[in-house]
Sequence to fold (334 residues):
Amino acid sequence: MSNSGNDLESKLAALQEEATQAIASVDTLEQLEQLRVSYLGKKGQLSQVLRGMGKLSPEERPRIGALANEVKEALQGNLESKRQELQAAQIQAQLAAETLDVTMPGIYRPQGKIHPINSTIDRILDIFTGLGYTVATGPEMETDYYNFEALNFLPDHPARDMQDTMYLPDGNLLRTHTSNVQIRYMEENEPPVRIIAPGRCYRRDTVDATHAAVFNQIEILAVDEGITFTDLKGTIKVFFAELFGEELPVRFRTSYFPFTEPSAEVDVQWKGKWLEGLGCGMVDPNVLKAVGYDPEIYTGFAAGFGVERFAMVLHQIDDIRRLYSSDLRFLQQF
Ligand code: DAH
Fold:
């Protein structure tokens, strides 16, 4: 095959034509780079054409050389402008994809509400922390010792009966009241004690409009030198006045709890009706002894009550089961 200058000239022209079209039709930067290598790379098509230059006459060589340079520069220019075009398009596409329309309406999320049991607990904790009490908690799975024995329940006390207490297969139990926190707190802390202990309790009660097998109690305990029944009465009167928003008549009835002596049940008169309020009493000396406090030096009072009943009274709820039904139509009212 002869390699005349005209031959090379037409090859260069064909190469330029083909490469220009190929560059114009490319639509990614990777494809563009492949084209650059294939036309202008060391082993590319332009180099291959130029290899034929060695056989040219000395007169033709500079003409073809200059032509080859022109082709090379033209193609480099094409490559560069295509590269800029593709890069700009890439940035545009990225901007379009990442554009945030701040005028779009948001996604609707229903507003959560505080459950009436929790709001009642919060209110009561607020009242007592305002009086200087500290919030304390204890375990829901408990031993017989903390739930009964240290609280002065005799071994055959009916509250231990299988009908009331949920026993676990390992001999532990689910606490039947929050009074276990009295023992746990006093074991760990020296007097003076002022604690309020909210928490879930469990009993094998038949569920009806006023009974649940799982319910919430709040325990109050104050132990110090010189605490008297008058302190207990004053504290309870202040508590009810704060909870109901007005001073209310309060009535103490004698009662019995193993861990208090004397013991009382307290009713509060609200809207003309007597409501059962709470159980309370002076901490039994045996309880103080069980935690290593000297009952000759220290006295104290304790009180305990269910949260659900107050939540029901305050929110006029007729059935305790509504509090646990998870019915949004009910819960959204609060
Ligand atoms: N623990 C009692 C119960 O579950 C409630 C109670 C009564 C707690 C009198 C007390 C108290 O601290 O002094 O029924």
About this structure: The chain has two domains: 3-98, 116-331.
